[in-house]
Design a protein that fits this description.
It is built from 16 helices and 20 strands. It is of the alpha/beta class. A six-stranded parallel sheet has the order 7-8-6-9-10-11.
């Protein structure tokens, strides 16, 4: 029996949250024949140009708060990923029988091509981007998006039967997934994160595990053999498995052998990518390359195409991104390190001689988990943002911790503490929302302040 195609024609749909995904969902819903109201807590969608475009498209805007009457009268509610589904007004609507789904779930119901979904506590954006490049190099028609780049709703109209959608998926997107079914689901790793949004670690884990929920025996789960929690989350997956590992020597899977990344099966190794082709800073990013190569291998991409994609990929902005060298001190931007585990991996990417800028809005975990790596490598920590007291509590006595009121002060304090030959790294272990719009703005401000400092340093030296 053929399932009834999903349709919103003539239905009253309320989209909650007017960020990137919510706007894309509202526009898609209008094109699919729905009567759409987009609601947001902000009084104005400042500086984006979205308000005029949405109104012209026929979207009704309800700004300055979410009205219960609007939600209760809807035929369907669609949530932008940044909107917590446990908000009382949403719980009331759900209790009254109004269906509620996330933007990822909405868009996926209209996709025509296959889906490669990539999640994990860290490394999602690097792996997603590189996977897309490998598949494109191998001749596939690819659209990359989701939690990075274009929202999935913005790609529906371009979706074809031969499209491979490479989708970065966060726990916020996955927690409301119902029918979302990836052909290949990648779980890079799992550690505590987003505990400011999820009720506890088990709720966060359950959200991540939903990436496997609808897979069957024709699908694939790509898992990190070095990360035991990932296997616990995937234990009920019905899909085939392909493991990758940087540290373990697997009998089958994608591993390191000699000077190459290989796919090992039945006692023989197929070379996928020479390690000399990898241009990324940080050993933990190597695991992301292996994960991308695993996906490309399943998709039948030729190793030569994988190598070309890797050689042309020098990493993402804000992910262990080299910025400048000033007076022999190197500055590196890892603003995407928004949780404890990601910050730890960034710190472990360098030898002794580090000054680390930590802090922001705390998302859970414990800064004490950084003490060992910082004690081995860092001379000084510069603390910023709301979490500065927690950083002092965890690290005072182990190393000097200096406070900085803003990023300009943090960069200058870090430079003053660093000696020539040492490295200053921004690896916050926190979200940015106490001081910045997002991690990207935080990273850009860091880079601006570093370049401003370089100009001043060079000007002083030339006098």
């Amino acid at each position: 029996m053929t399932a009834t195609p999903f349709s919103v024609a003539g239905k009253r749909v309320v989209v909650v949250g007017a960020a990137r995904s919510g706007v894309a969902a509202a526009e898609l819903l209008v094109r699919r024949g729905a009567e759409v109201t987009l609601t947001d807590m902000r009084a104005h969608l400042d500086g984006t140009g979205d308000e005029a475009r949405l109104r012209e498209a026929g979207v009704e805007l309800e700004l300055g708060g979410h009205q219960a009457a609007t939600l209760l009268s809807a035929d369907l509610i669609v949530l932008s990923p940044g909107v917590p589904p446990a908000q009382p007004v949403l719980v009331e609507a759900r209790t009254a029988g109004v269906p509620v789904m996330g933007e990822l779930e909405l868009a996926s119901r209209w996709l025509r091509g296959r889906i490669v979904a990539i999640t994990g506590t860290k490394g999602k954006s690097t792996t997603t981007t590189l996977t897309g490049r490998m598949l494109e190099a191998g001749g596939h028609r690819v659209l990359v998006g989701g939690n990075i780049g274009h929202a999935l709703s913005a790609q529906v109209d371009a979706s074809t039967e031969d499209t491979i959608h490479v989708v970065e998926t966060s726990s916020f997107q996955l927690e409301s997934a119902e029918t979302f079914k990836p052909w290949i689901a990648v779980l890079l790793n799992f550690s505590p994160d987003h505990l400011d949004r999820h009720a506890d670690l088990s709720e966060y884990a359950a959200a991540k595990a939903r990436i496997f929920a609808n897979q069957d025996a024709e699908d694939w789960a790509v898992l990190n053999a070095d990360d035991e929690p990932s296997h616990v989350l995937a234990q009920d997956a019905r899909s085939r498995r392909l493991l990758f590992a940087v540290e373990r020597n697997l009998a089958e899977g994608v591993v390191l052998a000699g000077d190459a990344i290989v796919r090992r099966a039945a006692g023989s190794d197929q070379v996928l990518v020479p390690l000399s082709s990898v241009k990324l800073l940080g050993s933990h990013l190597l695991a992301d390359v292996l994960a991308a190569a695993a996906v490309a291998s399943i998709a039948g991409v030729d190793p030569g195409a994988m190598r070309r994609a890797v050689e042309g990929f020098t990493g993402l902005e804000h992910a262990l991104e080299p910025v400048a060298e000033i007076g022999g001190v190197r500055f590196v931007n890892d603003s995407k390190a928004t949780n404890i585990e990601a910050s730890l991996r960034a710190i472990q990417s360098f030898p002794r001689g580090l000054v680390v800028i930590l802090g922001g809005r705390f998302k859970g975990g414990s800064f004490t988990d950084l003490r060992g790596a910082l004690g081995e490598r860092a001379a000084t920590v510069v603390a910023i943002g709301e979490s500065a007291p927690l950083i002092h509590q965890a690290l005072d006595g182990a190393m000097p911790v200096h406070d900085a009121a803003d990023m300009a002060a943090a960069v200058r304090s870090a430079f003053a503490a660093a000696a020539p030959g040492e490295t200053v790294v921004l690896a916050p272990a926190c979200s940015s929302f106490d001081m910045f719009r997002d991690y990207a703005e935080r990273g850009r401000v860091f880079k601006q302040e570093v370049l401003r400092l370089r100009e001043q340093f060079n000007g002083t030296r030339e006098q």
